[in-house]
Amino acid sequence: MGINTSFCWCFILVLLWFQSQGCLEEERAALLQIKDSMGSYLSSAFSNWYVKECCDWEGVVCDPSHTRIQRIFFPHLRSDDSKPWFPNATLFAEFKDLQELELPGNHIGGFISIQAFRKLKHLRKLNLRDNSIQNGSNLWWGKYLSLYNLDLSGNKLQGNFPDSLCANLFLRELILSRNNLFGSINSCLGNMITLRLLDLSENQFNGSFPSLLISNLTNIESLVLSSNEFQGMISLCVFANLSRLSELDISFNHLEVETEMMSPSCSPSFRLSTLSLGGCNVKKIYPWMFHNITSELWLK
């Protein structure tokens, strides 16, 4: 009995010791430098950053030992009239165990010393949506990271599908909507077979619909390619073998859509919750569409 009691006390003391360690000084200093580099921010931002323990600061999440920072979430902290912010990536590289970095809506124009992102070996989620990033070279570090989730929607990316993203074969969610991307989609997309969500909507991708590439994405659950410039005829048979597909949106392209899926080689293995074909020339409505769509069917 005494041995068990002693063990319990030792265990509690170890836990208390870990809890008392606090965040590392170099990570605390890096956070303060990131804050200062913003230049201007809303008066409500960083409201509790006066306490010493940075693991308790707003927008910061540490590991269970309360030592290493694992998540940084600074959403929409800078005012609408702020000048573009160019954060120094070397500051974020101080967070060796960082898993999630979210900086949406902060007027980010790009990063200084972008190569420093290569040090973030544990980074799995990167959210930079609703910023002002326009130079695709700011994404070259993508091939050095093993990201699961990447959101670059609502930026000013220009040109073709970024080649640097092609080497990231672990991506589960890729969101590039609301940019200025154009041309045909890079063939490397067909190799990103771990994708579950792909959103390339509201760009200017053109040419023939990338049917062959899409058919390789066997784990895809949500596919959103609406409001682009794809043209020509497409058969929904392209998606027949995507058994996990639940959301399909190819609306507002210049497409003529053949919806018949009656042959043995073209029997839908999915059960969609949403099918959006608005703005397309849909040749005919078939009964399967009503049996295999559980929530929403948009044709206009």
From TrEMBL:
Any one GO CC term of the record: membrane
Cited InterPro entries: Leu-rich_rpt, LRR_dom_sf, LRR_N_plant-typ, RLP23-like
Cleaved signal peptide residues: 1-22
UniProt-listed SUPFAM superfamilies: L domain-like (SSF52058)
Any one Pfam family match given in the protein's UniProt record, by short name: LRRNT_2
Coiled-coil spans in chain: none
Start and end residues of each Leucine-rich repeat-containing N-terminal plant-type domain: 25-63
Places the protein is found: Membrane
UniProt entry keywords in alphabetical sequence: Glycoprotein, Leucine-rich repeat, Membrane, Receptor, Repeat, Signal, Transmembrane, Transmembrane helix
Membrane topology: Single-pass type I membrane protein
Protein name: Receptor like protein 21
Gene: LOC107919088
